Amino acid sequence: PVILREDYRPFGWLVPEVRLDFDLGLTRTRVRAELTVQRNARADHADTIRLNGDGLKPLSVTVDGAAADWRMDGDDLIVPLREDAHLIAVETEIDPTANTQLMGLYASGGMLCTQCEAEGFRRITFFPDRPDVLSVYTVRMHGPKAVFPILLCNGNRVAEGDNDDGTHWAEWNDPWPKPSYLFALVAGDLVANSKPFVTCSGREVECNIWVRKEDLARTDHALESLHRSMQWDEEVFGREYDLDLYNIVAVSDFNMGAMENKGLNVFNTKYVLADPDTATDADFDAVEGVIAHEYFHNWSGNRVTCRDWFQLSLKEGFTVLRDQLFSQDMRGEAVKRIEDVRILRAAQFPEDAGPLAHPIRPDSYREISNFYTATVYNKGAEVIRMMRSMAGVERFRAGTDLYFDRHDGEAATCEDFVRAIEDGAGLDLAQFRLWYSQAGTPRVSVSQKVEGDSLELTLRQTVPATPGQPDKQPMPIPLRVAVHSRAAAALGAEQLVVLAEAERTFTLPLSGPDPVVSINRGFTAPVVIERALDREDLVFLAAHDDDPFARSEALQELAVGHLVGTASGTLSADQQAAGEAAIIGAFRSSLADAALDDAMRGELMMLPSETYLFEAMATGERKADPGAIHAAREGLKAAIGSALADELGALHARASAVPLDDPAGRGARKVKTQALVYLAAADPGRTAKLAAQQYDAADNMTDRQGALMVLCGLDCPERDERLAAFHARYKDNALVVDKWFTLQALSLHPDVIAQVRALAEHPDFTMRNPNRVRSLYMAFAGNPQGFHDASGEGYRMIADVILALDPINPQTAARFVPSLGRWRRIEPARAALMKGELERIMAAGKLSRDTFEQVSRSLEG
Ligand code: ARG
Ligand code: ZN
After folding, report:
1. How many angstroms separate the alpha carbon of residue 294 from the centre of ligand 2?
2. DSSP state letter for 444
């Protein structure tokens, strides 16, 4: 069945209080639930209550103590209710070890934990499992003390005790009313890294990071990140924490990154554990970002939650924006912004241009798990960022203050958020609301004309048709622009223009002759800018623009134009040579620019990804040719590597001399491996030696992984030796073994398909652990050379993974579908192979709702 946004109705009953009693066991857990229900005066009268279930059987159902006259409707339990208030008690029994979907209560490495968002609570007990039903939970847990010495739940522990039979119990109470998706429970043999945080009003909060004993030494970064997040949210958004306890638990089997359950976040170990020997600088950043994200949900998600799942971006888009702003403040604005835009383009733009395109507030779904997407999260964040850009930081803060104030304790909608920003920030967002309802990435074309001493800048927008949305209206697009002068080497002042019409001409002051427009500075709007700037203008912007984002953007534009031109065979030999020379020249300047720090230099040295180049190549009738894109990009890398061999060698040597804990160390490590990447493309033999040296000398995972990544793409003895050494050194560390799989699955090696097949047979590989599955197969699906191999073998392998994983873990299986779903934008021979695999999956029958929805949409759209 398809669920429609317009079908929302308030639930007939309120459930102000819930009491849960768990008798815990790894293979048998008894759950007794008591729900206090009251008629909802704001809903239509109902003489039954529907309690959602998923694979549950009720062992007993009573209403006010007497056996109830219940019936099942599919998976749901229907109980007749006559009066305005009742006490319903239901007992169920579940087997956490058999729960391979990892939704609801499940076993992971000998412990028990839960994941309830979006609809996992109904796999634990019968309940109105929807986010607009808010209850105060009191939970009693009981189990064998030797197996589960630690018993955790939301809120505060109010009582505990031991029994004579080797069992013990704890009772927890969460004073804040919450929807069932924020419920969590953890029972296991865990230890904590603890440090109190004192809030702005003086509340002392006990902060704990709970892990297995052997992981304790790698939890300081997570704990420090939590403290920094708490401090930042007080300072920047005026949000204070509201309990005396904040628990974070790391589990090794987890479908997503982490979960913001009230007072008891459950995390994938990947986003908790970090030390320099086992985690890269990027891993450290990811831990900090996800810890912050889940913490910020305490206000944007928990105190103000979502009315229904169509409103998911209300909490996710806003919280992603909040974590991005936090990381910008922690690590530097420009580099973080460049990274976030790279992610948006690699993950969200293709989604918006394909069969799975949906607005940030979708109109329909079959399985909500399929809508935890880059569109809802990352584009959702961009949409709110645009409001912030238009309002300015201070007025935006007035808007968010009003939002939190007005809706605290409520289940709100995206519309509520927009109205609060309108009222609080003083914006008119009437037309802006289209960003919530229209899918597709707008394209803005730019033309310019000098008129006296000003520039007439004409901007035109089109929003492409997407599945179910053939016609689009123009949306307000805020763009920061500046008009520079190349001839005068003068930089113009920046201003914000808002393009709200299909076409409009803006008059801007000139800063000198030969104007060069710098547009969408800081990436104020999630759009594609279409323009044909001269190579010289792009080179000028890449070297001189005062907005660092615009600098990197100019280099990207230069490279995209050149690579798409090369791949589609539209460049003359002269154009080809001139384009390559310009890019090499721009690289040479950024290598030599002493005013740049290495972190920014590392960004400027990054070529556009192949997926992004597919998008740029697939315009109008033209399709993307993965083989040609790959060849063009590798060719450019080799040209850069050989033209700049001396400079890159010198950079590698300079960066290698910077010590681990030097403040400049991070940037140095970034450019060090970048240098190897280009050198390897030009001179594999010599670079193999250099990479092996970097590997052997490394005192941190960033250098080690970087060197191994480069070696993985080369056919040399150093490759196999270092891969074996890496595995031997880290064989007991699951997260690092994941890296070992990923490096090989992502490699540029010509035999990558055969290597991935062999890795699937490795004793360390298992389909039961999502991190391991992703480490091999998500990585491979993101390896354009292997996945798009002209034989179609890469497509077949991923289709086989979907079929094998679907019965075990449908949520994770369905995440592999979008890579095959992009077939319409790919050249015909490969497109037919991709589509054939989707049809083969469809024909296999008996698919989960998750996979069925994604495959059928990919074939229809
Ligand atoms: N709310 C979590 C987060 O973004 C993600 C939960 C995803 N759950 C799911 N079933 N897809 O922080
Ligand atoms: Zn989130």
Report:
1. 6
2. E
pLDDT at 203: 98
157, 37 in Cβ contact below 8 A?
no
- The ligand minimizing its distance to the Cα of 317 is 2
Tokens 């690699």 sit on residue:
346
Q: Is it true that the peptide bond before 391 is cis, omega within 30 degrees of 0?
A: no
Give the ligand with the smallest distance to the CA of 368.
1
Amino acid at 789: D
- Residue 833 confidence (pLDDT) above 80: yes
pLDDT at 522 over 80: yes
For 403, residues 6+ apart whose C-beta sits below 8 A from its C-beta are: 304, 416, 417, 420, 421, 424
Rounded-to-integer distance, Cα 446 and Cα 441, Å: 16
| Residue linked to tokens 């119990």 | 169
Q: Is the CB of 376 under 6 A from ligand 1?
A: no
Q: Residue 362 in contact with residue 379, Cβ under 8 Å?
A: no
Q: Which of 260, 288, 294, 837 is catalytic?
A: 294
| CA gyration radius, the chain | 28
CA of 647 to the centre of ligand 1 (A): 45
Query: Residue 265: nearest ligand to its CA?
Result: 1
Taking Cα atoms as reference points, which of 325, 362, 355 lies closest to residue 340? 325
SS3 512: coil
Closest by CA position to 441, among listed 356, 528, 358: 528
What average pLDDT score do residues 706-714 get? 98
Question: Is the CB of residue 597 less than 8 Å from the CB of residue 664?
Answer: yes
Hey, whose CA ends up nearest to atom 2 of ligand 1?
A: 259
For atom 5 of ligand 1, the residue with the nearest CA is 259
Specify burial of residue 737 (Cβ count, 10 A radius: 0-12, 13-18, 19+): buried
Torsion of CA 491, 497, 502, 503, to 10 degrees: -50
Cα distance between residue 39 and residue 43, in whole Å: 8
Going 783 to 788 to 793 to 795, the CA torsion angle's sign is positive
Residue 610 annotated among the catalytic residues of the structure: no
Q: Is the pLDDT of residue 84 over 90?
A: yes
Q: Determine if ligand 1 sits within 6 Å of the CB of residue 369.
A: yes
Q: What is the DSSP letter of 466?
A: B
pTM over 0.90: yes
Average pLDDT for the chain = 98
Does ligand 1 have an atom closer than 6 angstroms to the CB of 259? yes
Burial of 88-118, coded b for 16+ CB within 10 Å and e otherwise, reads bbbbbebebeebbbbbbbbbbeebbbbbbbb
Q: Is the CB of 118 within 6 Å of ligand 1?
A: yes
Q: Is 659 exposed, middle or buried (0-12, 13-18, 19+ CB in 10 A)?
A: exposed
Residue 861 has pLDDT above 80, yes or no: no
Question: Is 294 a pocket residue for ligand 1 (Cβ < 6 Å)?
Answer: yes
* Whole-angstrom distance, CA of residue 628 vs CA of residue 612: 14
Structure-block tokens of residue 576? 């080809």
SS3 188: strand
The token pair at 93 is: 């029994």
Cβ 523 vs Cβ 552: under 8 Å: no
- Is the backbone of residue 824 left (phi > 0), alpha (psi -120 to 50) or beta? alpha
Residues 445-468 as b/e (b if ≥16 CB within 10 A, e otherwise) read ebebeeeeeebebebbbbbbebee
The answer to whether 838 and 804 have CB atoms below 8 angstroms apart is: no
- Other C-beta atoms lying within 10 Å of the C-beta of residue 45: 8
d(CA 801, CA 784) in angstroms, rounded, equals 17
Evaluate: CB of 116 within 6 angstroms of ligand 1.
Answer: no
Q: Which two tokens stand for residue 324?
A: 């991005």
The pLDDT > 90 percentage for the chain reads 100
Tell me the ipTM for this assembly: 0.98
> 708: which residues sit within 8 A by CB, 6+ positions away?
691, 695, 722, 723, 726, 743
